[in-house]
Fold each of these.
Amino acid sequence: MTAAALLPHAPGQSRTVPRLLIGLAFVLTAIFVVAPLVFIFWRAFAEGWAVYLKNISDPMTLHAIWLTSLVAVIVVPVNIAFGIAAAWAIARFRFPGRKLLMVLIEIPFSISPIIAGICYLLLYGRQGLLGPFLAEHDLKIMFALPGIVLVTMFVTAPFVAREVLPLMQAQGSEQEEAAVTLGARGWQVFSRVTLPNIRWALLYGAVLATARAVGEFGGVSVVSGAIRGQTNTLPLQIELMFNDLNTTGAFAAASTLTVIALVVLVVKAALESRR
Amino acid sequence: MSIVIDNMTKSFGGTPVLRGIDLTVESGELVALQGPSGSGKTTLLKIVAGLEWPDAGALDVHGTDWLRLAAQDRRIGFVFQHYALFPHMSVRDNIAFGLTVRPRASRPGKAQIAAKVDELLQFLQIAHLGDRYPAQLSGGQRQRVALGRALAIEPSVLLLDEPFGALDAAVRRDLRAWLRNVHEETGSTTIFVTHDQEEAFELADRVVVMGDGRIEQIGNADQIHDHPASPFVARFMGATVELPVTLHAGRAEAAGLDAGRLPRRAQPDGPATLFLRPADITPVADPHGRWHVARCDSNGAALRIDLTDGATTIPVDLPRRAPEARGLERGARVLLRAEAGALFAAPRRAQPAPAVRTEYPKEKAV
C-alpha cells in the first residue's frame, strides 16, 4: 500500500489500521534486522579503532578474507556462464528434459547447503566414491580450495539463471530472429542483441550470487575442514573466533562481511531502479 | 528474383501446418498471403526467410536452392508485426545494424554506412528521428524504422509479417500507401502476410488465399471477390449467408429467393448452396414474402437488417438511401433478391446441413 493510496481517503474509512500495520512493520524490521546490524559494528568497535584494526589485520583473518574473495572471483563468472547458457537453452529451445532442467536448476534453493556439502564429501572424500581414484592421481578436492569452490558453485547455481530466464521468456526470440535475417552470426546475435537486453537482470543475478558466495557457511563448513590460514573462509573464521571467545575479533571479522553485504544491497537497489 | 515454392509441407509436433504448397512469385511482384490465423501463412513466410525449415519440398530463388542457405546468407528483409527493433540502440544504429555485422571484408566504411542511413531516413520520412530510441517512437514510426532496417541491406526479397497488424486504422491506411510507394521505388520482390482483406487487395498485385495449410485460390481482388474458388474462400471473403437452393437449368431456386440477376451456371441440376454477402442481398417488398424484417438498425449510411422466416435469421446490409429501403420496418414482409453470389454443389452427405448460417463478417477495422 502506498502513501498515495492512503492519504486522500474515503470518508468513514479508518486510518488506524493502516497506520498500525505500517508502524508494526517498522518496529519489527528495527528489532530483527537493524538492531543486530548496528550491534555488530558497535561490538566490533567496542574496544576502539586500534583493537579493531589489529583484529582485522590478523593474518588468519586476512587470509580468510583473501580466500573468500578468491572463491567468489572463481564462482561468480562460472555462475554467469552457466546461468546464461541454461536460461538460453530453456527460453529458446524445446527439447526433451527441458522441464526437468528447470526443476534441477532450482534444487540448490530447496536443499539445505549442508546436504550439498555432505554429498560432495561422500563423492570426493577419502572414503568417498571417487576417493581412491583421486588419491591415485594425487588430486585433492576435499578440505582444499576445489571443494570449497564446488560447494559454493552448487549453492549459488540458480541465481543468475533465475533472474535471466523470465526476462528471456518474456522478450521472446523476435529480436534475435531479426538480427539473423539481417546477417548477424551466432556470436554477433548474442553480444549485440541478447546480452544488452538481459544485462541488468544478469548483473542483478551476479550481485545476488556474489553475496551468497561470500556468505556461504553450511556447505563450506563440511568440505573445507576449516584449517586456519589454509581453508578457512571468512564465515568459518568468524565462527572459530567466536568459539575461541575472541568476541571482539569475531565481530570485527563479521563487520567486514556485513560491509560487503551492505555494498551488495546498495548495488542491488541501484540495479533494481534501472530495470 | 523470382521465388519458386514447390510442394512444401511442414508440421509442428504432428499437426500439419503446410499441406503441399506450390507458389511462384515473379521478380518484382508484390504478393499478399491471406487467410485466417492458423492457415499457415506466417509459417510459409518464415520458411522463405530461413527462420523455419520445411519437412519436404523445394524453395528456389532465382535458380538458387535456398534450403541450403542459412538465413544470414539469403539477404532478405524481414519485417515483424511487433517491429522487433533493438531497444538499446538508437534509430540510426537499428537501421545500420545489418551493415555493421558484415564481415570486415565486405563491410562498408563508417562514413558510407552513415550516408546510407541518412538516405534511408530521408526516404522513410523519419529524418528527424535518427537519434531517438525505439521506446520514444509511435507504432507507425517504429514500423518505418523496422522497414528501414530491412531495406538497409538491400534485400533480394522483402518479407513482411502482418506489418500493420498492431497499428490503428488511420496509421495503417497511411503506411499502406507509403509501402506501395516504397515497393514501386525499390522494385523488390515482396511477400506480405495479412489477415486484412482490404489491405491485401489494395496493396498486392496478386493475393494468395490460404486455408488450413493449403492454397485455396490465387488471384486479384475482382477474381477472388466475384469468383471464389471454394466455399472456404467465399466465406472468408464475407459471403457468410449460406442458402440451400436447388439448381435447375443453371439457375438457383429456393422459396422466397429471386436469383434472376445471377448469371446462369454451367452446373448440373441438383441441390447446391448459394453463398451471399450481406451487402449483395436486396430485400424486395412482397406481401407474401417468406421473410420478414426482425430488426432494422441504421448507422447513418447503411441499414443493417435482420430478416427471418421464423426459423433462421440472415443479415442484410442495405444503403439507407436505396429505393428498396423505403418502407422497410419491423414486420414488413419481403423476398430476397440476390445481386451477386457464388454457387457450390451441396456436399453429398446424408445429414441435412443447417439451413442458414448467420454470422456477421468480422468488423472491418476501418
Note: Confidence is low (pLDDT under 50) at residues 350-366 of chain B.
Amino acid sequence: MSGTPSDIKLIYENGIRIDGRKADEMRPLKIEAGVLKRADGSAYLEWGKNKIIAAVYGPRECHPRHMQNPAKAIVQCKYNMMSFSVSDRKRPGPDRRSIEISKIISEALEYVVFTENFPRTSIDVYIEVLQANAGTRVAGLTAASVALADAGIPMKDLVPAVAVGKADGQIVLDLNKEEDNYGSADLPIAMIPRTGEVLLMQMDGHMTMEEVDKALGYAKKACQEIYEVQKDALRRRYAMSGGDAGEDDSSDEEA
Amino acid sequence: MPGDLLDGDKLRPGAGTYVEDGKIYAAILGIKTIKSNYVNIIPMGGRYIPCVGDSVIGKVEDIGPSNWLIDINAPHPAPLHVNEVPWRVEFGDTARYMNVGDVILAKILMVDETMRFQVTMKDQGLRKLQDGQIVEISPSKVPRVIGKSGSMIQMIKGYTNCRIFVGQNGRIWLDGEVDNIMHAIKAIQMIEEDAHSFGLTERVKEYLEGVTQQTSPGSE
C-alpha cells in the first residue's frame, strides 16, 4: 500500500483532493444501530464508499474452554472482507491482513469494555466489510463500538477511529482508495475523545515528527465528529418507535 | 450513552455507571434515573446477568449423578443440586425426575463474585413446568412486561385468561387456550417493541380489548 510512485495527481493546486474534499475533511459518515435481530447488538456503517456491518454476541460462554479467563471476559473479534468487497475478487477466508486487523480491533475494544464484570465469558464481535474503499479497519472499529453499546455491554466510552495519511506530500484526513494506494503514508488512529487516550495506532509509510503531530491534530478533531455520529446513531435507535430522544429523564415507569 | 458524564456531585454511583477522577460516567446505553442519592442507568438491552433471588425459567441442559445443569439464558449454565429440589433423589437417579429438555421454574440461590451461580427449586411455587408455551424477550424489557407492581401482567392475564409466569431472565411461560395464548404473545411482543414509549399500557389494553371482543362472540 505504501506509495507506489505514479503520476496520478492526488491534490490539485487549490488544495482540493480528487474527490472534492479539503485536506481536513472527512468522507460522509452514516451509522445505523440495531440492524440485526438475532444479534445482541449490531450496527451498519457507511463511510464514503465503505460499507460495513458489525454484530456483537455475548457475553456468552467462551469456547474453546482453555481461552476463558477466570477473572474477566475476553473480547474476540473477527474482521472479514467479503469476496465482492473489492474490485478484484478477494479470496474468501482469513488471511494475514484480516487476522492482524481482528487482533488490533479486539485489543482496542478490550480496553474500553468492563471485562471484569463478566468472568469466564467471551464477547464476540463480527465485522463484515461489504464494500471497501480504504480505511476499513477504522470504520470497522467505529461500527463495532456502536454495536457493543447497542448490545448493552458496559464500556468506558465509544471508540471513534479515523485514518490520517500523506498524499502528494500533504497531510490529509480520512484517505480514500486512491490516496491510500498512491499516497506515501497511512496512519489509522482510534482514540477516546474525552480523555484523548489512543487505543489503536498503526503506521504505514513515512512521516516526519511534525507531520505526525499535524496528523494527530486532524485525527483528534475528526474523532470528536465521529463520536457525535455514533451517539446520534444510538439515540436514533430508540427514538424511532415513539417518544423522542429527550426521554432520558426519570419519566419511565418501573416495576 | 456510554462515556457520558452524569452530573451531580452529591450523588453516588449506582448500577451501570463507573467513576473516573471522582466523576461519574455512564457505562451502558440506557436511561438515567436517580434513586435515593444513587445515579443508576436502566439498561436498554443486554444479556441476562443473574441476581440472587431472581425467579427464572430454565431448561434442563445436562444431567449429572447428583445435579442438573440448567440453561437460564445467562452466559453459563447453572447447576441445580439434588438437595435443592423438592423431591428426595437417590444418587444417580436424577434422570427419573427431570430429563434434558424439561422446563422448570427456579430461583437463583447464589451468585459469587466470579459469576458462578446456583439455582434452587426449594421455594414456594417453584416447580417443573408442564404444557404451555415459552416466549423469549430481552431481559431488560421484563420490568415493562410486568408493569408497575404487576399491573401490565395482571391486565394480560385478565383479558386472555391465561396462566402466565415471567422469569427475570426474559423467558415467559404461558398456558391456556391456544387463541388466548396467541393474543397474549402478541401483546407481549408489542410491549417488547415499544418498551420505552409512553402510553404503552393504554395501547396494549386497546389491543387486548379488541381481540377479546372479536373472539368472544365467535366462540359463543
Note: The domain at 29-237 of chain A is CATH 3.30.230.70 (Ribosomal Protein S5; domain 2).
